[in-house]
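Quick log. Single chain, no ligands specified.
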Amino acid sequence: MKVLLTKDVYKLGRAGDVKKVADGYGRNYLLPQGLAVLATPGALKEIEQIRTQASAQRAILNKEMSGIAGQIQGLEFAFPVKAGETGKLYGSITPQMIVEAIKERVGVEIERRQVDTQPIRVLGEYAVRIRLTMDLVPEIKILVYREGETPELPTPVQAMTPAAAAQAESKENEGESVPAA
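-> predicted structure:
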C-alpha cells in the first residue's frame, strides 16, 4: 500500500514523503491516526503544501523543545538495584522509571514512548536517547549499580546498547568471559 505521510512518523519518514507500507500498518495505524492518506493522484498534488506546513510546524516544535533538550542533554542518572552474582538484575530499569527520574530532577514531563531503549536488565552504564522530535534527540547516561555498593564510573565509557548487553549476558551464560566494552 502506498501512502502519503501527512505528519512526521518516527522510523518511517517526514511529512510529504510517499512510502510503501504493509497493508495492515497503513490501514490499522497510519490512516486512522491521521498520520497518512492513500497516495492517490489527487493527494499527490498536495505534496508541496503538506511539506511546507510540516516544515513550519517542525520549526516551531523544535524551537519550543530546544530548551528542554538543553536541560536533558548529558544528564546522568544512577539506579541502585538488586542483582545476582553475574550482574543480571532482579527486575529491570524500565523507560517509565527513566521518565520519572527525569521529571523528578528537571521537572519536565515526557512520555515513556519517547525513551528509546528496551528495559535494562544488566548492571552497567548505558547511553539512552530521548526522542523529543525527529531532529532533537538528546542523550542521557544511565548507571545501573548493585544496591549497597558505591556507583563506580568505568574508566572508558562502558556504554552498552541493550542488544550488546543481551549478547554479553548470553555469552556469560555460556561460560565464556566477556571483556567490558
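The chain has five helices and nine strands.
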